[in-house]
């Protein structure tokens, strides 16, 4: 869930899962994106491409009912969905409106729990749920604003869902990706500067790609991660461990 085009993080994960033999279905939001997703799905042998707006419970029900009819059960679900008004992804967090706060929480936080409720029914033998988050949940990042609050809620949901669904052998994890130029990221103020900052200051001295995220996402969705749940796995070239870099210190 969440492929918009070939730059999407979800597409990186889909490709990595396909390489390991996964049979895939894709959901998209609105026909305009559907036109882009269908050829991508075809290229990995999937003809199961279904419309779903996560703010609409009936649309979510229809998606999972179709999956149940086609497959009977699911092994894993990737939730790579987030949205906020781009006018509030700049300036100060304190100026966030109640309307955008509610919409951001609905699409970017609650939708993962709504997915978990439906996926649970299709995972009688266990499975894996994966969502995408960002370091702006843990630390203040420029312009991330209400999305930072949403991602903090999403990361807490991962822990509660892991505890609820663990007895059914359903693992629930988050992957915290470093900044990547995607459609969603283009709404964030000064995003090019954030990319440059991460490149210069992360231990690997580079930004991550959707292929980097894809491989780690595939691991978390697969039996390779059979003992991992409730985790927030950073795939950010190590940026989250850095407090301060020494080499640029001026003489004082
Ligand atoms: P993207 O624009 O390719 O994907 C975002 C997806 O969310 C789109 O497919 C869009 O259709 C979908 N979406 C938005 N509202 C929806 C709704 N109501 N119903 C259904 N789908 C909806 O961008 P991306 O960067 O690949 O984003 C995927 C996830 O990764 C998001 O949760 C994002 O916050 C997270 N993330 C992105 C970065 C980054 O720098 N790009 C870093 C860390 C985490």
UniProtKB/TrEMBL annotation:
Ligand binding (NAD(+)): 2, 8-9, 29, 53-54, 81, 151, 180-184
Pathway linked to the protein: Lipid metabolism; fatty acid biosynthesis
Gene3D superfamilies for this protein: Enoyl acyl carrier protein reductase (1.10.8.400), NAD(P)-binding Rossmann-like Domain (3.40.50.720)
Reaction(s) catalysed (UniProt annotation): a 2,3-saturated acyl-[ACP] + NAD(+) = a (2E)-enoyl-[ACP] + NADH + H(+)
GO molecular function ontology, one term from the record: enoyl-[acyl-carrier-protein] reductase (NADH) activity
Catalytic activity, EC: 1.3.1.9
Keywords per UniProt: Fatty acid biosynthesis, Fatty acid metabolism, Lipid biosynthesis, Lipid metabolism, NAD, Oxidoreductase
Keyword Oxidoreductase belongs to the record: yes
Pfam families, per the entry: adh_short_C2
GO BP terms: fatty acid biosynthetic process
Active site: 134 (proton acceptor), 144 (proton acceptor)
Entry-linked SUPFAM superfamilies: NAD(P)-binding Rossmann-fold domains (SSF51735)
Entry annotated with the keyword Lipid biosynthesis: yes
Family: Belongs to the short-chain dehydrogenases/reductases (SDR) family. FabI subfamily.
NCBIfam families cross-referenced by the UniProt entry: PRK08159.1
Name this protein carries in UniProt: Enoyl-[acyl-carrier-protein] reductase [NADH]
Organism from which the protein derives: Neptunicoccus cionae
Gene field: fabI1
């Amino acid at each position: 869930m969440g492929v918009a085009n070939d730059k999407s993080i979800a597409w990186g994960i889909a490709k990595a899962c396909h390489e390991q033999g996964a049979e895939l279905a894709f959901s998209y939001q609105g026909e305009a994106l559907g036109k882009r997703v269908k050829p991508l799905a075809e290229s990995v042998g999937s003809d199961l491409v279904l419309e779903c707006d996560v703010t609409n419970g009936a649309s979510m029900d229809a998606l999972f009912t179709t999956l149940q009819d086609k497959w009977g059960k699911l092994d894993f679900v990737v939730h790579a969905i987030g949205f906020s008004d781009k006018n509030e992804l700049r300036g100060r967090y304190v100026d966030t409106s109640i309307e955008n706060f509610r919409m951001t929480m609905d699409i970017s936080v609650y939708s993962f729990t709504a997915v978990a409720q439906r996926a649970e029914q299709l995972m009688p033998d266990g499975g894996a749920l994966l969502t995408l988050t960002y370091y702006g949940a843990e630390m203040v990042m420029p312009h991330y604003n209400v999305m930072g609050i949403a991602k903090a809620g999403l990361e807490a949901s991962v822990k509660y869902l892991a505890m609820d669904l663990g007895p059914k052998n359903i693992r629930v994890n988050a992957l915290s990706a470093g900044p990547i130029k995607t459609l969603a990221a283009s709404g964030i103020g000064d995003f090019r500067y954030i990319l440059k900052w991460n490149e210069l200051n992360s231990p690997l001295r580079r930004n991550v790609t959707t292929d980097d995220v894809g491989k780690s996402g595939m691991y978390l969705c697969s039996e390779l991660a059979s003992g991992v749940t409730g985790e927030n796995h950073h795939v950010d070239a190590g940026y989250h461990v850095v407090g301060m870099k020494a080499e640029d210190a001026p003489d004082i």
